[in-house]
Design goal:
By secondary structure, this protein is of the alpha/beta class. It has one domain: Rossmann fold. It starts with 15 loop residues before the first strand and ends with a strand.
Length: 195
């Protein structure tokens, strides 16, 4: 059994093509076994993307744990931002590259285990983080983001109430200026500004 946050997978490939409409624009995404939300755009990611004030997104953006690419592709197709996309899962990275081509966006996609291959600072780090890695690694992802954010940069993430949204939001106040952007059917979109 492999997980979507594993580097390699021996799970049989079964690629499918899905479609998603976001803010009146149609996106086409190839997905596969052993990547997150293989049936298509999940409700949490949709809530995250629809909560972001896209007009304000600029500069350098990191899509952390990009999976097959919906966050980075959406950001790049609606802004002039420089978008980097990272994941540890090779299958996900290959899908993200394919989906960037399908949706005609120019993004930089590379492998990174957490921030191991990240070498610059960003105005925004945007993620639907891999909750199933457990709280210890999740918090490492969220807290270490500080080191990769520019001054007053933003970490924006989505987390479900049943997965500890309230306590995570409270705990992040030790490191960031925290604001709730959206709450939708148990999903919290949280904006953590570097300070």
């Amino acid at each position: 059994m492999g997980y979507y946050f594993d580097k390699n997978t021996n799970v049989e490939s079964k690629e499918v093509t899905t479609r998603a409409e976001l803010n009146g624009r149609l996106y086409i995404f190839k997905t596969d076994n052993n990547v997150f939300s293989k049936r298509g755009l999940d409700f949490g990611t949709r809530t995250l993307l629809e909560s972001i004030d896209i007009k304000n997104i600029s500069g350098d953006v990191l899509d952390f744990g990009c999976g097959y690419g919906p966050i980075g592709i959406y950001i790049k197709s609606n802004t002039d931002a420089n978008v980097d996309m990272i994941d540890v899962n090779e299958r996900a990275l290959n899908l993200a590259r394919s989906n960037a081509n399908i949706n005609k966006v120019d993004v930089n996609i590379f492998e990174s285990d957490i921030y191991s291959n990240v070498s610059k600072k960003y105005n925004y780090i945007i993620t639907n983080p891999p909750i199933r890695v457990g709280k210890k690694i999740l918090y490492e992802i969220l807290i270490k983001a500080k080191d990769y954010l520019k001054e007053e940069g933003h970490l924006i993430f989505v987390i479900n109430k049943d997965q500890g949204a309230k306590s995570t939001m409270k705990d992040m106040q030790e490191y960031y200026s925290v604001k709730l952007l959206e709450k939708n059917k148990g999903f919290y979109v949280i904006d953590c500004q570097n300070r």
